[in-house]
Amino acid sequence: MGKLTILATLVVLSALGYFSYIYLEPYLAPIVQPYLDSPYSVTEDENVLVLTNNNFNNVVANYSNVLVKFYAPWCGHCKHMAPEYSRAAAHFHNNPETQNIKLAKIDATVYKDHNSKYGVRGYPSLKFFKNGKVYDYKGGRVEKEII
Do 49 and 28 reside in the same domain of the chain? Predict the structure, then answer.
């Protein structure tokens, strides 16, 4: 195979890649997206795990100690608690002795399925999951009380 043939092949492959991205992406995205949002993909926001319908069950099943905050973005109490919750999450994350404790949050206005399942009636609601079993959290809502 000559150099010209290799170069022509690379140009054609590049053009096909560009064509695929520009013209096929709108059609392929809905098919591919469920695989990208796998139950194993969990994002973090300031050391707090961000839960969705796709990853909720996996997170509470695979971490032995998870405190989940059910919140509403418009809720004043939730907004006030957010920095305290993040600082507590950072404490657990940065301490080798407590790295098995995870703090998580789920937007209960978007992912409503979990509200009735776990008895969420107001915001913020906190539930503690120990080895997959749920308990009502009766502790405080500031960093020192959460720790």
Answer: no
Number of compact structural domains in the chain: 2
Q: End-to-end CA distance of the chain, in Å? A: 66
Dist CA 55 CA 107 (whole Å): 13
* Same domain membership, residue 118 and residue 86: yes
17 is catalytic: no
Q: What is the pLDDT of residues 96-136, one digit of tens each?
A: 888 889 999 999 999 998 999 999 999 999 999 999 899 99
Tell me the per-residue pLDDT of 55-76, one tens digit each, with 9 for 90 and over: 999 999 989 999 999 999 999 9
pTM of the entire predicted model: 0.73
| Closest among 72, 74, 38, 71 to 56, alpha carbons compared | 38
Verify whether residue 122 is a known catalytic residue.
Answer: no
Q: Are residues 85 and 132 in the same domain?
A: yes
Domain that holds residue 6: 1-36
139 included as an active-site residue: no
